């Protein structure tokens, strides 16, 4: 029997996560992203664009997840993913509907998708059943999208955008967008501005901005943490989360006075667990003081606490 569930692992963005792989036999995806950590594959033929070719039987999947949920009771999220794209699994709606009664109350269901099929009505019906839907969208400029996500030739960024927009209109659950920035491909200010405008329009709850972290399938490079901070300014007003910074150089930490903090929060909320990556110890104390005296507040959105006004 293939490994259908994995973990639990600790994720900074979602807490303790138990993973479910809907494609445990092989990679099955309609993208071939340059940053993918799985082996590169040729995009599927048009006839398989909306379905896996090797399908895990539904009863086997449900049984396996039930067993894992019984074994690991204290998890924050049940993360539905795939060795590929999970919305290509043809029984997604049946699976989430059947497994829901076995998910503990305190555990959220989460799906990680590339967003390419969000316009499909059947997939929308399945997505509605999750507590959190997280989709990736790296660029809405066709040329950059083509280079970074290397999608199946029948998928255009315009259609994908329309699909995401139509799902965003009907959803009642949490919607999170992940953007992965690759050096010299989708790292221009113009790319990010267009993306930010689209994400404002569809009112995502949270944006996770990141770059390549582990060895990718192709020879491409990550951007620096400083570049991510610079790009994050394009997303004024939105709840944006940066990755954990590695090797923090305390000499580069920014010093903010009370007025600076308020000006900053007028532009964009800052995740409470992000401030130590960015600001000096004294600045962090000022955030706390402003929170204690009610000048700024903390809002939980997309499962993360943010300082905001
Ligand atoms: S969508 Fe995900 S699984 Fe598919 S190629 Fe991109 S990173 Fe890999």
Structure notes:
There is one protein chain. The chain is an alpha/beta fold and 309 residues long. The protein folds into 2 domains: 5-243, Aldolase class I (TIM Barrel, Alpha-Beta Barrel), CATH 3.20.20.70; 249-309, Arc Repressor Mutant, subunit A, CATH 1.10.10.10. The chain is 32% helix and 19% strand. It is built from 10 helices and 11 strands. The protein has helices spanning 58-71, 92-99, 121-127, 142-149, 157-170, 189-202, 225-232, 258-267, 275-278, 281-292; strands at 5-11, 15-21, 77-81, 108-113, 132-136, 174-181, 206-211, 240-241, 270-271, 297-301, 304-308. The protein has an 8-stranded mixed β-sheet with strand order 1-2-3-4-5-6-7-8, with helices on one face. Strand 3 (77-81), helix 2 (92-99) and strand 4 (108-113) form a beta-alpha-beta unit. The protein is globular. It starts with a strand and ends with a strand. Bound molecules: iron/sulfur cluster (SF4). Residues 29, 31-33, 36, 38, 84-85, 114 line the site of iron/sulfur cluster.
For this entry, give a set of tags:
309 residues; 10 helices; Arc Repressor Mutant, subunit A; 11 strands; 8-stranded mixed sheet; alpha/beta; TIM Barrel; 3-stranded antiparallel sheet
How is the topology of this model organized?
Layout: E1 5-11, E2 15-21, H1 58-71, E3 77-81, H2 92-99, E4 108-113, H3 121-127, E5 132-136, H4 142-149, H5 157-170, E6 174-181, H6 189-202, E7 206-211, H7 225-232, E8 240-241, H8 258-267, E9 270-271, H9 275-278, H10 281-292, E10 297-301, E11 304-308
Parallel strand pairs: 2-3, 3-4, 4-5, 5-6, 6-7, 7-8
Antiparallel strand pairs: 1-2, 9-11, 10-11
The structure holds iron/sulfur cluster (SF4).
